[in-house]
Write a structure and sequence with these properties.
By secondary structure, the protein is an alpha+beta fold. The protein contains 14 helices and 41 strands.
Amino acid sequence: MSDGHHRPGPTAGGAPGPTPDPAHWYGGYEPHGQYAGSLEHQQYHQTHLPHQHQHPGSVGDFAHAPQSDWSGWSGRAAGDSLPPLQLCEAGAPFVPQQSQQTEQHRQYEPHPRHPADAEPAPAHGDPAHAHAHADTTAHFPTHGDPDAAARPAHAGSNDREAEVPPGARQGRKARRSARETTPRPRRARKAGASGAPVPAAAAPRDPAGTAEGVPRAQRRGGGPQARRRSHRWAGLVKGVALCAAVAAAGMLVLRAGTAVDGLGGSPAAPAGPDPAVVAADAVPDPGRVVQIVAHPDDDLYFMNPDLRYSISAGHPVTSVYLTAGEADGVNATPSKGASAAPDKPAYAEARQNGIRAAYAQMATGDRSSAWKRTVVPTRGGGHAEVDVLVANPRVNLVWLQLREAGHGYADVPDSLHGLWDGKVARLESMLSSGTPVKQRFAYSKDQVVQTLVGVLEQYTPTTVRFQDPTPGRYPGNRQYTDHQDHFYGARFVQLATAAYAKAVDAKDRPHFAVQNYVGYFNGSLPSALDPREAREKLDSLDTYAWLDRQNHCGSDAGCGDLKVADRPAGNRWTDSINYARGTGTNWLTSDKDHGLWAFKVLDGQVAVWHRPGPVGPWRGPDLLPGTGMDPSASAVTLADGRIAVFGTRTSFGTRPADYRRDVVYAVQKAPGADAFGEWQSLGTPETADEAWTSDISAPAVSVDGTGRPAVYVRDGAHSLRGRVQRADGGWGPWENHGGEDLHGAPVTATDGSGRRIVLAATSKTVVGWAQPEPGGPLGRVTATGLPDTTLPLTAEGREGGVRLWFRKPGSGNVRTALMTADGGLKVNHMTDLGGLNGFGSVTASGHVLAGRTAGGQLGAEVGPGRPWGRSPLMFVGAPSSTMTGRNVVSLAVVGLDARLYVTSSADAPDAYLAPWQPVGPRNAKP
């Protein structure tokens, strides 16, 4: 992330100012050293690291990823399962976090509007086995199969399919006969107090079919007692089946009745005290998160608290570091840096130690928790270090150790930027002093991409997190608003995710969603986190920065990054988190037949889910043709009833300068039809990538009273641009509507008179534009007088005007104000709606208001004055909601498992959200 160099531009909170070859493989992290001169604009890393033990291992011997090499990934075919991880003694199987939280996923607990003080999720893993890795070969089961670790690998495993003879599938009588002669597998007992299942004793079996010396026939049905037990068991099974059938029928009637009533005039509130539960069969999949960053600490500064939320919830999390982060090689505070001798390998090791300690602290509460450090060959021809947290093998760190730029914006050929632009043919490695990787290497541009493709194939993520590939420039001095390693590293990840999606057929891997994160510019925006969340984030950076100077890691290089020890918070980076893309809330919409349509980007393509009518069966995800889609999609209904989907698309071209993002849209071929037309481009207001790094926002779209759609984006110069469709179906040019210091994506909606209103956030307030009448040109930019707000905004036409929702800085509380256009843009009184803190987009339809809460789950208010409720769902990007008919509100999210989850509620004062339902099959690896 930071590098210690002077960062041009705004001060905190201010506006912008003045065929693979064998190769070597480590990288550096130069930036910190040159930023050491000024505390005002310095870029910093994470804080002091907790204590940890490190155990270098042999090549391929590690616990969370497969052995063998990453060029062939153990030589297994796509879709082959991996053996379960063995970290404990026989009879004491490892239990993943997912199994411990099943009951939690079935509750939707109402909360008051003040922040909840719930304790964090228990640390994963059993401390008693913290050092069991010493004699263990790790296989990386949990990313490939989230449930593998929960299945005891002993003789009493419950695998009915494996024990049924082939003939038993011929008919009911044959199966009954087989059951009478085949012993039933024993079930593991219920989990004990510790959360780990207590396995049934596995009796030895002999070829004669006896166990413990008792013949099967005698044990199964050899007496009156056994027969009576069999009859009682059969009766119990029949009773349970009958209850289940009655319950299912009742639920079907209830759902159909609720939907139909809501579409009419008098909705009925769903019965039951629970505002929103996750149905028993709808427990969210754990999902697998892979996050790829340029430097050690970028994840802690810019992806937290999402990172901490994912670890606490038991999601498998793998963080990949492109460069070594060696900077100038001086591990000292700026005041002592001049007298310290530079040692780049040692400084890189100190930063790695800091990262390991911070992750151990987040995952186990103990910074000294042990890691298994191993070497793995990569597809690019080099080697990677893979670290697996022994107490929680779902937490992995992958160190690619390439050389870093050493400066935020200067021309440095030996860097990711130089490699991308072709200024160097290969980028060399920068090996840390303590790494088990001993052979140096270098990568070409394609080898970097192939190395990342190999990582993705190995970990099969359902969510991929990386930095912003188009951060923009400061208007005054035209310097990058983010570190060049950050966004050129992100562009390598873009290429890698596209190559991965193309090379591995979707039937051989799960779908994946992408989340991008704002970098340095967070320090120039209002604080997005409430004080408690900001303190938690700072705690991780304090650990990374090695504030106590205790040699808890046993390394001569040091146990953390002292460059940031004076200011672990950096340039207010621990106060915020902002998504660079995917913040729109208009991706769920309803049609005239009360069907639902959802549009999100999976695998670089727009995925479509569709429910015909009010109670029809869902289908999807179906991927629309066309790749390169950025993670944001907005849907709008045209005047003729067809749905149009808008987004941005990235193309790479044949030359580095050909990198380009343009606005595209696709239109439904007929109202209600499943088919959509081809993607059509509206171009971009940017002239070239070099001008503003292709920094355009996601498009905001609205249809005015004349039926003409218009699309608006924020351009790289932080002003508003727009195109309006003409009466003949063509589009007018990109018009400049002015404005300055605009950030995030604009929002737009139409008021009760059919006039378009457009709103955008600045670093200090909100500004807007309004049509004087439908069909007229957009008016001049107008100050609203609203206070500063966090990103992003949400707008919806209602109450005769356009209602705006946004969050209070430093709090996360939701605020709202009604905008009207009579006689020019005006703002009605602002109201604070409270909430469960949190950050990011909120969605509003009817009486339902929902958004991300502190903790990362979805929170919702189902009516004014009602308490906020928190669901167990953790999700990607933003939620979306829509009115279905006159009196039903539908709400949807895409979980970290890249699966759609939907719920609904009657639009009534005492209504509740129905149980969340997943759409489509579980998004697990085949």
